[in-house]
Design goal:
- There is one protein chain.
- The chain has six helices and no strands.
- By secondary structure, the chain is mainly alpha-helical.
- Helix 2 packs antiparallel against helix 5.
- About 25% of the residues are buried.
């Protein structure tokens, strides 16, 4: 039993470090996107392709951001669905009850379908997706309108192609965003269900 406990403890420590890694990177990418918007718009007066590059970069950053957020929820789901029940069955003591505490403590009412915590989590990813996905189409349109009067012939063809490439990246980003929100919602519901299945410190099992 001691070896099993040590193995679970090591796995928990490793996954906890991975959680911090993904959380830090997600926050950094979000801040980088916001800062990049300001710098890129300012530089667009001197750099012709700044707006278009910025639009494409925002899509790329969204890919990386969503990967880190999904990884966070997947690890949290593993803790609640796999690790916590396994350790509880062995120790017969409420352990790793953080998710249960959050959902119980911040629930607006017993009849509510979702706790305030889960609603905040879902709203957070929607707001974040807006910060990444709202600027690209606006930047693309601004770039095309800015350069359309001064281009002709082959240069205009290149302008259209560049706009189409960025538009394609944006549409794929939107599709990726919908998939991300759906997966996070599913993981969040699974975590909430699992969190209620085992007792917490305030509700020890009857002997």
């Amino acid at each position: 039993m001691g070896d099993a406990n040590d193995f679970d403890k090591a796995e928990y420590d490793n996954l906890r470090a991975e959680l911090i890694f993904h959380q830090t990177n997600a926050s950094t990418i979000f801040a980088l996107n916001i800062a990049g918007m300001g710098i890129g718009i300012t530089a667009s007066a001197k750099l012709d392709a700044a707006l278009l590059v910025l639009a494409f970069l925002s899509c790329v950053l969204w890919f990386r951001y969503s990967d880190h957020v999904i990884a966070l929820f997947r690890i949290a789901a593993y803790f609640e669905l796999e690790l916590r029940p396994r350790v509880y069955d062995r120790l017969k003591e409420p352990v790793l009850g953080w998710e249960s505490y959050l959902r119980e403590k911040f629930s607006p009412g017993k009849s509510a379908k979702s706790s305030r915590f889960t609603l905040d989590s879902r709203m957070g990813i929607v707001v974040a997706s807006g910060a990444f996905l709202a600027p690209p189409p606006l930047l693309r349109v601004a770039f095309v309108l800015q350069h359309w009067p001064t281009t002709s012939g082959f240069s205009r063809v290149l302008l259209v192609i560049a706009g189409v490439v960025v538009a394609a990246a944006w549409f794929y980003s939107v599709f990726r965003g919908i998939h991300t929100v759906r997966e996070l919602r599913q993981l969040d519901e699974e975590i909430s269900s699992a969190a209620k299945a085992l007792p917490t410190r305030n509700a020890h099992p009857e002997s």
